[in-house]
């Protein structure tokens, strides 16, 4: 796995207000499948994630 350190010369990310934060849709799912993705430019994995009955199964 490759870890990149933050660029100390980069400008800080823009901050959002609390109301904007509340508008963000954050979901939690269960990874139910994982497989290599050799066609990708960089080493990658394909994920299958179950988000429950409201959203269902999604692939990355």
UniProtKB/TrEMBL annotation:
The keyword Cell inner membrane belongs to this UniProt entry's keyword annotation: no
Species of the source: uncultured Sphingomonadaceae bacterium
Domain TRNA-binding: 20-60
InterPro entries: NA-bd_OB-fold, tRNA-bd_dom
Keyword set, alphabetical order: RNA-binding, tRNA-binding
Source taxonomy: Bacteria, Pseudomonadati, Pseudomonadota, Alphaproteobacteria, Sphingomonadales
A GO molecular-function descriptor: tRNA binding
Name of the featured protein: Protein secretion chaperonin CsaA
